[in-house]
Amino acid sequence: MKSPAIKLLRKHLKEKAFYQWVFITYKSVKDFIFFCIRYLEWKLYAYNIKSSKDLCFPNFMIIGLPRCGTTWFMNNLYHHPNIHLPLTEPEYFTSHLDRSLRSYSNIIKRGTGIIRGTKSPFYCTLPVYKIRWIKEMMPDLKIILILRNPIDRTWSYAKWIITKVKGKNIEKIGEQVMFDFFKKDKKRFNYLNILKNYSSVFSSNQFKIIIFDEIKSRPKSLLRETFNFLGESGQKDWNRHPYYKKINPGIDKPIPSHYAQFLRKLYSQELLLLKKRLGSRVASWLSTA
Fold first, then answer.
1. 146 CB contacts (<8 Å, ≥6 apart)?
2. CA of residue 78 relative to chain centroid, distance
3. Superkingdom of this entry's organism (predicted)?
4. Are the beta carbons of 66 and 157 closer than 8 angstroms?
5. CATH superfamily to which 54-253 belongs
6. Where do runs of H (alpha helix) occur along the chain?
7. Closest C-alpha among 279, 255, 53, 24 to residue 153
8. Closest by Cα among 210, 204, 75 to 144
9. Closest by CA position to 72, among listed 200, 188, 226, 255
10. Is the whole-model pTM more than 0.85?
11. Contact between residue 64 and residue 121 where contact means Cβ atoms under 8 Å apart
12. pLDDT at residue 238, rounded to an integer
């Protein structure tokens, strides 16, 4: 007679969710192991056991969120003569800790800019222990976080992932599949948690929050503020900067009413808390809730 435990195990082995759980657990454990290795490597540099000569880390990071104008910002900062950042997204601290700190440094130090940065829109999801490690390595680092109405951002991100990444027709995706996607997306990109995690580690003069709507309403003055934030307040040749262009535009498909209704309900409480946290800058978001 088979024990209940064996029956339960066999049942789980037949379920797709079980393998997803195993994969996620394996990935999390693997990532933490590589984090420990990289942290020990950093300590060897910090205590001069290994030579830190020519080791180069960024002066600023654009940490997200996806579909919030991070590519627009990257391109406009890239065209400043005193700012350098790679046009690729290293995602080192999210996906590539199996590589040495020296390899990360080599990506950052390419180019001639006085101020160096990176854009990695998934850094907003980093756990606090990684954020603290980044601050330990780069105590003067400046953080740029771009926020967009979460209802609009979630729909834009869903269209992008399903249509461009997975190559599927979003109109043929089942309603429940979309609802599950929205809920997972909200959990992964929780604005309040992101703000809490980064503001608990970086001081207010190191942490700049930008609202997506400002990119459309005042792109030039927003860039000027950002240059000043990064310590680059000299004369600007605005002909160099594509601030008037749409860069990496989304897919032009309005949100269906039943999805809009679901997202309004999903984000209703969070929007109120964001209004309390960020004030009038996000007041217009409440009109969609």
1. 62, 64, 65, 68, 69, 70, 73, 209, 210, 211, 212, 215
2. 18
3. Bacteria
4. yes
5. P-loop containing nucleotide triphosphate hydrolases (3.40.50.300)
6. 4-13, 16-46, 70-78, 92-95, 101-108, 128-137, 150-159, 175-188, 191-199, 212-217, 219-229, 257-278
7. 255
8. 210
9. 226
10. yes
11. yes
12. 87
Q: Percentage of the chain with pLDDT > 90?
A: 67
- Using the predicted structure, report yes or no on whether residue 235 has a pLDDT greater than 70: no
Each domain of the chain, given as residue ranges in start order, spans 1-53, 54-253
Q: What's residue 113's pLDDT?
A: 67
Residue 86 CA: distances (Å) to CA of 43, 97, 215: 26, 18, 21
Torsion of CA 23, 29, 142, 65, to 10 degrees: 20
Burial of 69 (0-12, 13-18, 19+ CB in 10 A): buried
- Measured distance CA(107)–CA(279) in Å, rounded: 38
d(CA 247, CA 153): 16
82 neighbors 234 (Cβ within 8 angstroms): yes
